[in-house]
Amino acid sequence: MRAEKDWFKDRGYPHFTNKTPMSIRQNIKRYVTNHKKVAKHAFSPLIFKEIKQRRYKVSDFNGVQKRSHKKIKDGKVVSNTKIREILYATHLDAHVYSYYAQQIITPKYEAYLKQDTLLSNAITAYRQIETDDKVKFKNNVHFAKDVFNEIKRRENCVALVLDIENFFPSLNHKKLKLAWAKILGHKTLPKDHFNIFKATTRFSYVKLKDLKTKNGHFDEKELAKHKKEGKHTFFNSIKDLIDSDIIIHKNQKKNKQKELIGIPQGLPISALLANIYMLAFDESVIKELTLKHKVFYRRYSDDIVMICKQNQITLIEEFVESVMIKNKLTVSLEKTEKTLFKINKGRLQSYKIDNDNSLKENVPLNYLGFEFYGYQTLIKSKNLAKFYREMKETVNRKHKRVETIKEKHLLDEAPIFKRKIYRLFSYKGEKSRLLPAKRTNYSNGKAKTEYFDRKFRGNYLRYAYRASDDLEAPEIKRQLRNHWKILQKTMKKYDFSNVNKDSK
Questions:
Q1: Distant-in-sequence contacts of 330-333, Cβ < 8 A, 24+ apart
Q2: Res 135: pLDDT
Q3: Burial class of residue 273, CB neighbours in 10 A (0-12, 13-18, 19+)
Q4: Of 35, 188, 220, 425, whose CB neighbour count within 10 A is largest?
């Protein structure tokens, strides 16, 4: 059965204010439902961290095309690594954002979309959309299937995948405020909403790496001291943060017109605000391209896909560029992926359309983690590579831990605990289950350990096997048929006493 999203979440990370366990949920609810309190709520600084994603893609090296983790930019060889900037809020602040996003703004946003079926169907990300059987909510697999099925239905068509540059950091504050008020049915934002608007646009933040004050590591003694006092925080109080040497940054990003831009990516309300901001663009596309030219349109956050006739490509690109400019955003047309689909030798075949309009056969459409060739659908190769890379890195970490134990206790042999490895990286972790877990909290300096069951929702293979079934693509399961051999081969590289090196 599908489960409705709960606005209250017991978050485990340390921040500048204390955690809010389930036991005080009612107190939190009374606070976030009081519009006057929210209107005067003092939001704390966010914590900023970078998530680095190593990418292996085709790059141009002085006229030579080759796949690499590096690329040439401004005449220099630099890394292809994609850096995502994530900012996350204190526990109470997160509850305010979450409650307003789920309980107040989303119902009004959904009511607005329901007035136009084409518009509602086009916007897929960050929404709870029921499957046809109403058993669960749709995910990226279902959204990808909708696009692939439309291509199969049309057969001779082109899929354009456009990407908005620096999406969250580029959202214009003035336009966001007007779009937010429009959804609420007001000319301007009420005081409580305006306070949240200010917190998501004029935000301050502290870099996570600046909190690592002990030779690049957290001060574990100080954290343990706070924990024993019942505070899961970096500082004893906000005042201590202000009095420290830690720099508190402010969002001061501006566009070329000197207008303030950017909202944090990572807040419980950020995704909804991004959808609201894009509403004017969505409506323009439906009105001018879908209704007038039968262009199929889907937007998953900042990933835009349009399916059209080959002679409509220029029309769409010019229209998208002009509307993006009106919405103070930039779409890189040079990076637009153009994939032609047509029947070849009795089957639907994909072709990449290069900038010189030449065709490369059997280059797939990449969309929401899948590669669509027309005649088959596969998991994106870089996602599969990431799965195997994480598998090998995890086994390597286990090996280092085993070697440390052997050295510390002067042991000749030490085993690897294989159960967790198998659960994470093999077919043995495909099924969801309850796992025993414990949590230790401090109250008045005394430790209290709570035992509970934690739900394990299945590993990556569970997702892949389900995607294979939902997409009616058995070839996805064939992609992963050697995962057990690769895992066993990886484990045999290391000196674990309970791994049989002779087995085949």
A1: 330/164, 330/165, 330/166, 330/170, 331/162, 331/163, 331/164, 331/165, 331/304, 332/163, 332/165, 333/162
A2: 84
A3: buried
A4: 425
* Half-sphere exposure of residue 298: CA atoms within 13 angstroms, side-chain side: 22
Q: What is the Cα 310 distance to its own chain's centre?
A: 32
pLDDT digits (tens, 9 = 90+) for 5-50: 789 988 888 999 998 888 899 999 999 999 999 999 999 999 999 8
Cα–Cα distance between 236 and 233 in angstroms, integer?
A: 7
pLDDT for the residue numbered 377:
97
d(CA 184, CA 368): 31
Residue 484 has a pLDDT of 96
Amino acid letter for position 200? T
Between 294 and 227, the more confident residue is: 294
C-alpha to C-alpha distances, 289 to 3, 159, 163, 192, nearest whole angstrom:
36, 14, 18, 37
Torsion angle of alpha carbons 226, 227, 233, 239, nearest 10°?
-20
